[in-house]
Each structure stands twice: as C-alpha cells, then as structure tokens.
Write a structure and sequence with these properties.
- By secondary structure, the chain is α/β, with parallel strands linked by helices.
- It folds into three domains: 168 residues, no CATH class; 191 residues, P-loop containing nucleotide triphosphate hydrolases (Rossmann fold, 3-Layer(aba) Sandwich), CATH 3.40.50; 63 residues.
- It has 16 helices and seven strands.
- It has a seven-stranded mixed sheet.
- Helix 11 links the parallel strand 4 and strand 5.
- The longest helix has 24 residues.
- InterPro entries: AAA+_ATPase, DUF815, P-loop_NTPase.
Length: 440
C-alpha cells in the first residue's frame, strides 16, 4: 500500500481528510488514537452532513468514502470528450489505493476504543438514512452511488473500475453541483450556495399554459442535449406560474445535468465571476433572474444588456439566462422618456430617442420571449381542480367550484398563485374540521 504521506493523484481532496488519513494510519500502526479520530469524523458525518441514504449493505464508513469521492471537487470529463490519459492513470492509481480503505473492517477500530460494532449500525446512525431536501435528487444520487458501491465490492481490476468511475463522473459530475441541483449566488465573497430544500414543484404540478410550457421545455431540452438554445424571458401577469415553471425545470432535467442558479438583480455585474466558476463544469446551468424589472435611474439593465449581447467575457455553451418579469420591456419607461411634459423636472437628454430604444430593446435580446396572461374563469377552475386532486382533497366538485369562485372574488382574483392559495386554505380548513370531529 502507498505511504500515508504520498499525495492522492486524482482524489486530491482526500489528502486533507482526517478520517482517510486516520484509516491509512490504522492499517499501518493499529494506533487507538487514530481510531478515535476516525470515529469522531464518522459521527460528525452522520449527524451533520445529511448523507444520501444508501442500502444497509453499504457501511457508514463506505458511505463516508463515497460522499468524499463524488461530492468533493475533482476534474470531471466533459460530455462526449475523453479524459487525458494522465487523469485516467491517476484515477486508476488512486483506486488501487482506495480499495483496501473501502474494504476496511470497522470492528477492530471500534474494539480498540472499547466500543461494540453495533454503535455504527443503521439504527444508531439514523441521520444517515433520512436525507433532507430534494427527494427526487436524493433517490437519483442513491441509485448512482449504490451502483458505484456494487462495483467496488465486485470488481478488482482497477482499470475497469477507472472506466466505471469515469462514466459515473460523466453522469453526476463532482463537487456541490453533483450533490445539489439548485443554487443561489451570494456575491463574490460567498459564491454559490446550495439550496438544501428547493421548491419541490414539478412539471406535473402545473396546469394550463400548455403552449408556453411546451416552448420552454423544448428550449431547455435542446440546451441539456448540447443543441442550440436561447435565453428566455417569461413575462406577463402576476401569479401566472412563470417562476414555478422555471423552478420545475430542474426536477424535469436535473438527472440529465441541468442546474439552476438564482441570481439577484443587484448581482448582474458579477456575471464574469459566475461564468468562470461554471465554464469548465460538465453540467448545464440556467442563471435564473426572478421578477426582473428596472426602475428609472437604475443602471443594472446595462449589465443585463452586456450579459445578453456578450462582451469581453463570452457566455459559455453550458450557461443560459432565464428571467421572469411582469413587464414586457423590463425597464419602467416614464412619460419624460417620450419627451412629454411632466410635473417634475424635465428630462434633459440630447439623445432621448436612443435612450428610449435602448430600454425598449432590452427584452428583444432574449432569443425566446414567452407571454403569460391571467387565466379565464374556466382555466382558473381547472387549476383549482388539478391542485385539489393532487392534494387529495375529498370534496364535491360543485362545492369546490363554488368555493373557488368565492375566493377569487374576495381575494386576489384569478391566477395560478390564487388557485394555490385557495387550495392550501381549503386543505387546512378540511383538516381542521376532521380533527374537531376526531376529538369529539
């Protein structure tokens, strides 16, 4: 086995991992002190890191290693490209070093600490079996990691293992973009922060706007497949499901490599930095600007214009922009922009028409513009019925329609958001009535 001081060639992050160093030290020295370091790292992993649930045949130690292998940042193969031979050779060499660690029997380490092997049983480390967050993502990752675990159990040839790992990395990527599907940009100092529990809405949850949904889904599928695709502006009335559709895309295409990065309007100027972080990743990234609009006096729209047109920093092929807005032209145009008199100070712009055109042409720079109008009564009731069915509400259809129309008149009018608010209210009301009956 290589010396414990030798650097890892491919999995370089393991060089600084205390549990891995302790396990290698234990194999050579059987020192109880390093066993304690190893044990503490496993407990911290089970309690704090929200591990992906894996079959009981995969020990907690093996789960720890799999998480370190795939959710630390390592070189990832681009789709359709071969890795450099040096990378493939480094991967095979590291896998030869990894196999004895992966098959390490935890019992002697625990016994050296006066502990029984059951202390690391699935029942004891229950946190490792109930990962929070995106259920679909967790299941998909669990399936991928289980395949890798099975290969490590049954395959001794490290060249074959290297090919298997290459395919796994090509499918999953590595680092945070493998562990999470949704991120928020939190500025240059904090960078990309994973969203642990993203909105669970799926395309199947949406109703109405079939034409608009088809346009956005087709454009996104082209993007995921590496085909030409456009930046997208979804605009229209409030509450019509524009943002919900964008959020649902990641659950539709996440297993195929799509990632969603929410970026605030104030951070548009950070685009070059964001691009440098994403450019070499194998996944496809949608930069999502929600409820995008610009007030008079703001200059953020100039950053967006540069971003859409391309400047010194070219937008890479694995990045697109999707924005939602209640305004067709994104920028709030004033009467003074048209040269019409106002009660305030007069605008003194020698190039007034250029200013107007610059503002109004901003939306045109999105390759695909999709409009959403408030639903008519029948579509609103269809939305309510669909949501109520998915929520499992037991109520007569006539009563549901009558209550929905009352809600529409008394509250926020007709929209997808209003339909959701009504169904949530009704679900709580029915559940409360049932509780009162049960308590009698």
């Amino acid at each position: 086995m290589p010396s414990i001081l030798a650097p890892w060639m491919f999995f370089h992050g393991l060089s600084d991992d205390p549990a891995v160093a302790a396990a290698e030290d234990w194999i050579e020295t059987k020192n109880p002190e390093v066993a304690a370091t190893w044990f503490r790292a496993l407990l911290r992993f089970a309690a704090e890191e929200d591990p992906i649930p894996l079959p009981s045949t995969v020990s907690l130690w093996q789960s720890y290693l799999l998480h370190r292998l795939f959710f630390s940042t390592f070189p990832s193969p681009d789709e359709g490209k071969e890795w450099h031979r040096a990378l493939q050779g480094g991967l095979a060499a590291d896998l030869r070093r990894l196999r004895p660690l992966y098959h390490l029997d935890p019992a002697p380490l625990l016994e050296s600490l006066g502990l029984r092997p059951e202390v690391l049983s699935p029942d004891f480390t229950s946190a490792a079996s109930t990962a929070r967050g995106n259920t679909l993502l967790n299941q998909w990752l669990s399936d991928r990691l289980t395949e890798v675990a099975r290969s490590l159990e049954t395959t001794e040839d490290c060249a074959i293992l290297a090919d298997l790992f290459t395919r796994a990395f090509r499918s999953m990527g590595s680092g945070p973009a493998a562990r999470h599907w949704v991120f928020k940009w939190e500025g240059p100092s904090r960078g990309l922060a994973p969203v642990i529990e993203p909105d669970p809405i799926t395309v199947a949850d949406l109703v109405g706007y079939e034409r608009q949904r088809k346009q956005v889904l087709q454009n996104t599928e082209q993007f995921v497949l590496g085909l030409p695709a456009n930046n997208v502006l979804l605009y229209g009335d409030r509450g019509t499901g524009k943002s919900s559709l964008v959020k649902a895309l990641v659950h539709e295409f996440g297993a195929r490599g799509l990632r969603l990065v929410e970026v605030a309007r104030r951070d548009l100027g950070d685009f070059p930095l964001i691009v440098r972080l994403l450019r070499r990743r194998p996944q496809k990234f949608i930069l999502f600007f929600d409820d995008l609009s610009f007030s008079e006096g703001e200059t953020f729209y100039k950053d967006l214009k540069t971003l859409l047109e391309g400047g010194v920093e070219r937008r890479p092929n694995n990045v697109l922009l999707y924005a939602t807005s209640n305004r067709r032209h994104l920028v709030n145009e004033r009467f003074s922009d048209r040269g019409w008199p106002t009660r305030g100070d007069e605008e003194d712009d020698l190039h007034l028409e250029d200013t107007v055109q610059e503002k109004l042409s901003l939306a045109d720079r999105f390759g695909l513009t999709v409009s959403f109008l408030s639903p008519d009564q029948e579509l609103f009731l269809e939305m309510v019925g669909h949501m109520a069915k998915r929520a499992g509400l037991e109520i007569e259809e006539d009563s549901l329609r009558r209550l929905a129309l009352q809600w529409e008149r008394r509250h926020n009018g007709r929209s997808g958001r209003s339909a959701r608010q009504f169904v949530d209210h009704l679900a709580g009301e029915l559940a409360l009535e049932k509780k009162k009956v049960d308590l009698r």
